């Protein structure tokens, strides 16, 4: 057995000489690419951008208006020492959920001005974050945005 150990020790430096360049080559080649890590793989079906219908564009505007109205009611209620009712909150969340559903169905579709439903949700959340409205709405929008494909 001592001769086998010696031959392995003797062969190891040669293997290192061969293995090291092979490992470096694999790292270099494996790490190279076109830099587009978000590019779809072969056979991946990409959603078509499309356009939103006039009804869908009105839906976006309606949701934005409903959320603004809700926030105005919240401000008035808080100033009076009260809070919004469960029904008022449910109405605002239904509007957000409807817009989120449209964004999931048509993630790349835009209205005539170029705004997508996903972008509209993001704008609503951004507007709410700086306000004294209802932080639950922002969380709900953030949860919806987390599962909607990015543009």
Annotation keywords:
151 residues; mainly alpha
Report on the structure:
It is a single chain. With 151 residues, the chain is mainly alpha-helical. It is built from five helices and no strands. It has a domain of 86 residues. The termini are far apart.
- How far do the termini sit from each other? 65 Å
Globally, the shape reads: elongated
Q: Helix coverage percent of residues?
A: 55-70%
Total DSSP E strands: 0
Give the uncertain stretches in residue-range form: 5-9, 15-40
Measured by DSSP, the beta-strand proportion falls in under 5%
Q: Return the string of H and E elements.
A: HHHHH
Rounded Rg: 28 Å
- Give the rounded overall mean pLDDT: 78
Structural class: mainly alpha
Tally of helical runs: 5
Main sheet, how many strands, which sense, barrel? none
């Amino acid at each position: 057995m001592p001769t086998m150990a010696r031959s392995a020790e003797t062969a190891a430096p040669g293997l290192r000489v061969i293995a090291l360049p092979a490992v470096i080559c694999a790292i270099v080649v494996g790490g190279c690419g076109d830099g587009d890590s978000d590019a779809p793989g072969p056979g991946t079906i990409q959603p078509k951008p499309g356009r939103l219908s006039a009804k869908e564009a009105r839906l976006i505007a309606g949701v934005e208006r409903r959320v603004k109205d809700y926030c105005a009611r919240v401000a008035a209620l808080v100033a009076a020492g009260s809070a919004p009712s469960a029904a008022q909150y449910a109405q605002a969340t239904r509007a957000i959920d409807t817009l989120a559903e449209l964004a999931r169905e048509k993630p790349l579709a835009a209205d005539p001005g170029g705004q997508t439903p996903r972008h509209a949700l993001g704008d609503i959340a951004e507007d709410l974050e700086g306000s004294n409205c209802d932080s639950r709405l922002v969380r709900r929008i953030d949860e919806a945005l987390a599962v909607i494909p990015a543009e």
